[in-house]
C-alpha cells in the first residue's frame, strides 16, 4: 500500500498554519504563524486584519511545510483545508490557496470542519475508540459531541451564549491582562489561596448545554465592588472562583454524557484544553470513574494545521473529497 501524505491548511482565525501529515498520524511538519501580537493592540481579533496577515504569510508557509516534510509536492496525496466555522475572510485565504494548489498539482481537495480538526488532534497521539465523547472547549466553541462511529457527529450540548475561551478572555481583561488572557487567569487561579464564591450555571436538569454569560457578569460585578471598596489583591481569588465554577460544570456534564451514552473514551480538545486546572480536574475525575481520557499535547490544543490533516485523513480513506467549488462557511454544522 502507498503512503498517504496530506498537506493541510488552517486559517480560520488568527493563526496561519500549514502541515504535512503522513498516514494520518505522523507529523512531518507543522508550522504555525500566530498573529496574536498584531491583534493584542486591539484587545481581540480584528477580522479584516486577520485576513491580510494570512495573505502575507500563506504562500511561504505552504512552501516551507512541504520543504520541511522532505517530499516533492507531486508526492502529496491530497490538499486539506478548514472550510468553517470561523472568520469568513480568514477562511477564504486558506481555501483559495488550497484550491489553487490542488488544481495546479492535480490533487484531490478535502474540506475539513474546524471542530472535527480539534477533536481528531487526539488521533495524533492516541487511537480513538468508539463510541467516543468529545468535550470541545475553545475561544469560539463549547460543545459536547458524541461520535457513535468514525465520521459521525452528534452535538449533545453547546453554549447558549459565550464560549469558554471567550469568557476566560473577558474575565482576564477585567483583571487587567492582555489578550488572549486565558493562560493568565489559569496561572493566577493556580496561585490563589482562596476562591471568590461565584455561581454555577447548571441549566435545566439533564441539559448538556452551557451558559457562561451569567458567570462573566458575576465576575465583572465582583471586580467593580472590590474596586469601589478600594481593595486590591482580590484578583487571584476571582480567577480561582471563576475557574472553579467553569471546571465544575464542564467536568460534571462531560462525565454524565460519557455515562449516558456508554462512550468508551472522553476526548478533551480546543484551546482551553491547555488549561491546567481543567486538565487536572478531568484527569482526576476520569481516573476515579475509570473513564479513558485523551488530551492532546499543548501544541495540538490551540489552532494548528496538523489537526486538520489528522481529520482529513479519515475523509481521504473513505474517498470524501470536495470539489473546487468549496466555499468558506462562517457557521458550519458538524
Ligand atoms: O482553539 P483556539 O486556539 O482558538 C479557537 O478556535 O477559538 O482557542 C483559543 C482560546 C482563547 O480564548 C484562549 O484564551 C484560550 O483558548 N486558552 C486558555 C488557555 N490557553 C488558551 N484558556 C484557559 N486556560 C488556558 N491555559
Ligand atoms: Zn480552534
Write the layout of secondary structure elements.
Layout: E1 5-10, E2 15-22, E3 26-34, H1 36-40, H2 47-69, E4 78-84, H3 88-105, E5 109-113, H4 114-120, E6 132-137, E7 142-147, E8 154-158, H5 164-174, H6 182-191, H7 213-228, H8 235-261, E9 265-269, H9 276-289, E10 293-294, H10 305-317
Helix pairs in contact: 2-3, 4-10, 5-7, 6-8, 7-8, 8-9
Domain Gcp-like: 26-309
Keywords: Acyltransferase, Cytoplasm, Iron, Metal-binding, Transferase, tRNA processing
Organism: Paenibacillus puldeungensis
Quick summary:
Belongs to the KAE1 / TsaD family. The chain has 334 residues and is α/β, with parallel strands linked by helices.
Could you explain the architecture of this structure?
The chain is of the alpha/beta class and 334 residues long. It folds into two domains: 5-119 and 301-317, ATPase, nucleotide binding domain (Nucleotidyltransferase, domain 5, 2-Layer Sandwich), CATH 3.30.420.40; 129-295, ATPase, nucleotide binding domain (Nucleotidyltransferase, domain 5). It is built from ten helices and ten strands. The chain has helices at 36-40, 47-69, 88-105, 114-120, 164-174, 182-191, 213-228, 235-261, 276-289, 305-317; strands at 5-10, 15-22, 26-34, 78-84, 109-113, 132-137, 142-147, 154-158, 265-269, 293-294. Strands 3-2-1-4-5 form a five-stranded mixed β-sheet, sandwiched between helices. Strands 8-7-6-9-10 form a five-stranded mixed β-sheet. Helix 3 links the parallel strand 4 (78-84) and strand 5 (109-113). Helix 2 (47-69) runs parallel beside helix 3 (88-105), helix 6 packs across helix 8 and helix 8 runs parallel beside helix 9 (276-289). It is globular and about 65 Å long. The protein starts with a strand and ends in a 17-residue tail after the last helix. The mean pLDDT is 96. Bound molecules: 5'-O-[(R)-(carboxyoxy)(hydroxy)phosphoryl]adenosine and zinc ion. 5'-O-[(R)-(carboxyoxy)(hydroxy)phosphoryl]adenosine is lined by residues 13, 138-140, 165, 168-169, 180, 182-183, 186, 270-272, 274-275, 302-303.
